[in-house]
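Box S2. Input/output pair 1.
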Amino acid sequence: GKGVLICHTLEEARAGVKQIMEEKKFGSAGDQMVIEEFMTGREISMLSFVDGKTIRLMSSAQDHKRAQDGDQGPNTGGMGNFSPSPFYTKEVDRFCKEKIYQKTVDAMRQEGREFKGVIFFGLMLTEEGPKVLEFNARFGDPEAQVVLPRLKTDLVDVMEACMDGTLADLPVTFEEDACVCVVLASKGYPVSYETGKVIHGLDAFCDKEDVYCFHAGTKRNEKNEVASSGGRVLGITAKGKTLQEARAKAYEATEWVTFENKYMRTDIGSAIDSSESPAFREDESGM
């Protein structure tokens, strides 16, 4: 995510350390560093609800971290997402259920750190099998934008079950539709960008079904107009019977919104076109 440097050579690694710790590219956050194994593969996210003992998986999703088309440019908080991921196969699902998901919840409870809430599993599908990149105790952004619109069970009921420890008694189901989110950002994000740009066209979403506009870096200005206030400004999300349909609807909806220095990637979800899977859908419950 944002603040992560991918280094392919020793020279790049040394330059990265200098940028972070000496030049303070990320401010005081660079006072400490974490150096991890470089893994190659396809990155997948899995969100889940947890009540301390029981874990209910939401859906797989696939993020686009780099700022520019073709996965070029610096890492960001996420420039778009799609769900479900066709690369999260039955084999991957079986492995993760056996080796990762429930074992994580059990280990936390056994260590006296019983967890209730949302766990985000960041996975890398390597040639050696799925590996865990990160855990987050929150929804992902923009993962939540492509997962929660497909949730059929009342979210309040799910959260209450997490708190009460009764998640095992509550069926958590999702629509079979696909969902795609395209982030509208301020040009120059995540490095240097201008804010305060008035946003036009938001009313176009008021009477639309299966198309959503999620606010991120926005605020009201002194004229009570909605204006940009951050790097990632809006998340334009659409549902469809297939990922291709959802993507087409999402990109069409991005044209409804205008603001100065608006920027977006034009290839969100392009990986689904090269997938060898004949149907870009997951057919197991909760996926």
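Box S3. Input/output pair 2.
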Amino acid sequence: MTVTLADVAKRVGVSASTVSRALSSPDKVNPQTRQEIMAAVEAMGYVPNQVAKSLNSGRRDALGIVVPDIANPFFPPIIKAVQARAARLGHSVLISDSDEQTRDELGLVRELVKRSDGVIVVSPRSDPGALADLAAREVIVFINREIEGAVNVLIDDGVGVGQAVEHLHALGHRRVCYLAGPARSWSNKVRRAAAREAAERVGVELVEYGPFNPQMQAGVRAADLVVASGATGVIAYDDLIASGLMLRLAQRGVSVPGDISVIGVDNSALSGMSYPTLTSVSVPCYDAGVTAVNIMNEHLSGKRVEPQTIQLETELVVRGSTGDCPR
């Protein structure tokens, strides 16, 4: 039989309203009475009605998160971090996947706004003006996209990609390909700019191909272009493209790293499972998710959260897919 608020009140010898107040506003109840109520709640297995609680408080105790592609290995660690941290703070998490469809993204965010207390938007592809307008009216935190006047948690890909170029240069490579990601990707703009800057600084010729969607098939398609370019080193937008590239190079009999060195970005699980293992830029996805939830929780706790940008650094992890320039 379901235990009700009245059952708890009868056991403790107080009114139902006192029990309700002890659960929703414990600081407004005498400590001794509150302790007796909480003991009864635990002993009887009482579960508060969340719908009623939401109606009374105006809170849903839920956060939303929107990602461009839940199948991309970059995003699950962020989602996992958001879920874990939110659970510790008493929030459930609603997840939406835009499937790289820019036209659907804003609609998904607006829908989650109606069903949650705040939304974390990861690597959005939508127009920055539309995103800024939405953030001005709703509780939103962006991950991996800098939106003016909003709260942003950025992953500084530039540091790691710069290290990737320097690593190839140190191995003797002087002609390097950059395989670009989606045209509307903020991360791609940062990574490409960092590759260009580092290449110019150390004296490496940079050849660019793309844009490509972050999929293994894109790397397969890019392989023939890479071989024809005469480049001896490649930096791919992400590990998916890098893995597809290595697969096609192996099919063509091109040795990695004997003939061509390959570097990915994200340091995903793929980097340790490929053969050879993939040198990749390590990205603090989990930390980004935790940071976003912490900021969101401050806002929901009544603290004033000013527009801000928090940057998390990346670094290159060297594995078996890079080696000395063959010529």
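Caption for Box S3: The chain has three domains: 5-57, 62-155+285-313, 157-283. The radius of gyration is 25 Å.
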